[in-house]
Amino acid sequence: MKSICVFCGSNSGKGVKHLLAAQSLGKILAKENITLVYGGGNVGIMGEIANTVLQYNGKVIGIIPEDLVAREAALKEVTELIIVKSMHERKAKMSELSDGFIVMSGGIGTLEEFFEVWTWAQLGIHEKPIGILNIDGYYDLMIDFINNCVKQEFVHEKNLDMIIIEKDAETLLEKMKEFKPVTVRKWTDTRSS
Description:
alpha/beta; globular; 38% helix; Rossmann fold; single chain; seven-stranded parallel sheet
């Protein structure tokens, strides 16, 4: 893997565990020479991981919509800062430049980004690994909800194989490197042969 997109919050969250996790992942990415692709901000978890990667001489590509440059205080010291017109363009560019995705602690935007790249995987738009770094049980309730979606037969059980969930950044990254794409046929082909 040459680059990983990390979805994470522009807030720091409660306590220091989430910031420490961002520092840990940032160090690993820099050490392994994996470029960080992220939302371009200098605040919250976003700023923490980007600044850590840079501190350890790693490469960082920030992608941020022009209307968020001031609000999320774009980190101008990144290796490359790409300013785009919209959130849609931001997500498309992040996906284009990444070999995989890691979801860290975050809010509504982070959740939306996760579900979108998972949907894209289900639809066959990409075959990249998607990892959830579940710090301090942050995503436990979401994972329970997803499992209930499977139980209620709204999500195919094989779709769960598209997601790697770990509490430790190093373990998560190793499993992402070993990831084999999963194909789930969502709709039955009703055309006759």
